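Quick one: co-fold with fe (iii) ion.
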Amino acid sequence: MSTLTIHQFACRSDNYGVLVHDAAANLTAAIDAPETDAVRRALANKGWKLTHIFVTHHHADHTDGVLPLKAETGCAVLGPKGEASKIKGLDKLVGEGDTFAFGGSEVKVLETPGHTSGHISYWIPSQDVAFVGDTVFAMGCGRIIEGTPEMMWNSLQKIAKLPPATELYCGHEYTVANAKFALTIEPENNALQARAAEVEKLRAANKATLPTRLDVELETNPFLRPQVPAIRTRLGLEKAPDWKVFAEIRERKNRS
Ligand code: ZN
Ligand code: FE
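Sure, here it is.
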């Protein structure tokens, strides 16, 4: 097993780009390509040469850099089977249950639809890390643009069942707004109160609040907590299935 070095960088207005580097194999993957120049600068910064792009979904803020970066580096582009017609430059299509080698590490593909209908996440179990795109955010989740609430709920469940120490890299810095909203759903959650204060401080110092860790999300992310009795009571959904409670929380966030 080799060790990967992960470099996260802010780009566009609130996106994160991520580079994953295997020094022994001399490989570098970009998780999505939000912006050509920002990815280029991050590579130069590290002295790494781009060999792969792993695309999570077709939105422009995740794919704008794919064609230019591929043209200048000759990198291989992997992306979701379910969005093959919407993403230009894909060399390899991947879907649920697919695994592939990245240098000395095994990468597992999880289909996590809901934000878009073919959205995928990349999980590297040996490194306890997952790249979840716009599925989960710190104390939040992606907007359901193409899918249904049930679909999104199933995707969140898939991520929630990964090992609790899994580091989650997400597509956007939405954390402070998410924390404020989360407190309207579960104001009595002490871990959430503490975290909301902590992320305010990080952002005031212009620091990233990501990556996050699954165990922290399980304690503070309302979208992963529809089973909590206090939340159900607050929403008047004591007897509803989890996905319906999730759907109501998502609806409220859309209106917030
Ligand atoms: Zn998106
Ligand atoms: Fe996005």
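If it helps, The two ends are 45 Å apart (CA to CA).
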